[in-house]
Amino acid sequence: MAAPNRPLSPHLQIYKPQLTSFLSICHRMTGIGLAVGVLFLVCWLSSAATGPESFARIQEFNGSWFGRLLLFGWTFALFYHLCNGIRHLFWDAGKGFEMEIVNRSGVMVLLGAGALTLIAWIWGYSSMGAL
Amino acid sequence: MSLRTPLGRVRGLGSAKDGVAHWWAQRITAVALIPLLLWLVASLVASAGMDHAAVKAWLSSPVSATLMILLIAAGFHHAQLGLQVVIEDYVHTEWLKIASITAVKLAAVALAVSGVFSILKIAFGG
Questions:
Q1: Does B45 sit within 8 Å of A123, measured CB to CB?
Q2: What are the tens digits of pLDDT across the range B64-74?
Q3: What pLDDT shows up at residue B3?
Q4: How close does chain A come to B83, measured CA to CA in Å?
Q5: Quick one: fold of B21-123?
Q6: Please, which residues have CB within 8 angstroms of residue B111's CB and are 6 or more apart in sequence?
Q7: ipTM rounded to 2 decimals
Q8: In terms of Cα–Cα distance, which of A91, A95, A109 is closest to A27?
């Protein structure tokens, strides 16, 4: 076995920051965040299955500023991971590897995830009658 | 005794020893999750701030309950496969790596079963 203290690639202190590596790191981080999100979804479902009181409690948390911040973060993480995941599926099919296209699809992923997040939240607030 | 040659037995399996099964399962669950998650976000957003009765009514429909169970199953499978890769990349102490992956896989199964049970309980009358 190799010694565990060897330098790892990518060496983040030396590598120049690039859109591609930044988006790749974001894909992992949003993936980890969404794993926590699906855990929260199970909490939400099981509190709904427990009864009206426990469900009211979790809905109260979701309505608090911290709950909304978490839900907003999960919404963006979800749409980012979904859009970038589709980008990955194109790569799996062997398409879109040219540097120009990789950078353009990266920007599209960021814009798409941002737009979908905003649409979801505007739609959500308007369906609550808050707009 | 197998009649397959040694080369035939290992061909396509690569250094992971189990071929592309992990990679392929991650892609299949990813594709399944695209429509399922769009459906979930649209359902939750369209009835934002649902009370308990509204959630019961929503998950009592066979279509919603079925889609929700599929989402939980595909979601936890996908999450568990992804977290496994993250652990394999960053945890280099062998016992800790195996312990973490085992914990993630067991937790994923337990939480998925808990989620499915909750959905069924709501669907069959709270």
A1: yes
A2: 999 999 999 99
A3: 84
A4: 7
A5: 3 helical TM bundles of succinate and fumarate reductases (1.20.1300)
A6: A38, A39, A42, B76
A7: 0.90
A8: A109
